[in-house]
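Amino Acid Chain and Its Fold in Token Form
===========================================
Scope: a single protein chain, as residues and as a discrete description of its fold.
Amino acid sequence: labelled as such and written in the usual single-letter residue code.
Position: the record begins directly beneath this header, with no further notes in between.
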Amino acid sequence: MLDRYSIAVIRWPLKQAAKIPDKIGLTANQVTVSGFLIGLLALPAITYEYYWLGLLFIALNRIFDGLDGALARRQGITDAGGFLDITLDFLFYSMIPFAFALANPEQNAVAATFLVFSFMGTGSSFLAFAIMASKRNIENPVYQSKSLYYIGGLTEGTETIACFVLFCLFPGYFAEIAWTFGALCWITTATRIWAGYQTLKDHPPQDSAG
């Protein structure tokens, strides 16, 4: 829901920052993998209840995630890079609730499991539609610079990161936040399934149209 606005705010700073790795010869894929490896450090930090340290690694991961996109737009967007980026993003997103489950299994495990379950709904509806939209050459007027068709929803990347920040700032309320955000994710999943189905129904494959 908020991605289109947050992207508009951070686009220019990231564009300027991308000049540095480009100048020293780093590729967008190298930045993607580096950001993911940094993000992995949030797992032990949160597990051992160093929540502020976990928040730092989450923030660094997201900065690298924005930077790799800006760098890719300088060097040329590729399907391989888009595939790598989205795959590592989804792994990172699922890792954070898992870390909180490890930190306090009795209090957090069920809520964390529900949230990961909810991420399956948002993730599968997102990726499945992107595949079908690509086959039908459906244009995306909102996120034209993305390598995949980004179908929107109530809970997008911006809301997910805001949720992770709340987890780290208020770890004692992880379960309540996770249940609430998971429920919102299912609203997103339902609307994506409906909107995606209707859109694909109205855009048959080109070779069978007419």
